[in-house]
């Protein structure tokens, strides 16, 4: 399943573009990109878990995309919280303007997800075809 990883990589690139205005204070931009590169893997792991659950539960396409959209928010919040858990930043949720960076991460995740809708559909179709083929093969063996 490379789709969650592709969605994550696209989201990081979109995040880098969305946060370009932070170059007005270059150190903020550099720190945010370092945090994304080091702690974004937590978001990727969480989103992958949510993605796999959504694919295997097999809801309708619109419901699946809604679940994945909520999953982006959950994944970003989890990664953001890991900054505090790993003692990189204390009281991360009280950081004032710094909260704009996770908002940019959520927006970039949504854009990346919406750009990957067809890939999600293909993954779902391939999964269903593989399950049906293995079920047919199991019945023919018996």
Mean pLDDT level? 83
DSSP strand count: 0
User: Helix share of residues?
Assistant: over 70%
- Total DSSP helices: 5
SS-based class: mainly alpha
Shape: elongated
Largest sheet: none
Summarize the structure.
The protein is mainly α. The chain has one domain. It is 80% helix and 0% strand.
Explain the overall architecture.
This protein has about 140 residues and is mainly alpha-helical. It contains five helices and no strands. The chain is elongated, with a radius of gyration of 18 Å.
Outline the secondary-structure elements:
Elements: H1 3-18, H2 26-57, H3 61-85, H4 100-115, H5 117-141
Helix pairs in contact: 1-2, 1-4, 2-3, 3-4
Note the main attributes of this structure.
elongated, 5 helices, mainly alpha, 142 residues, 80% helix
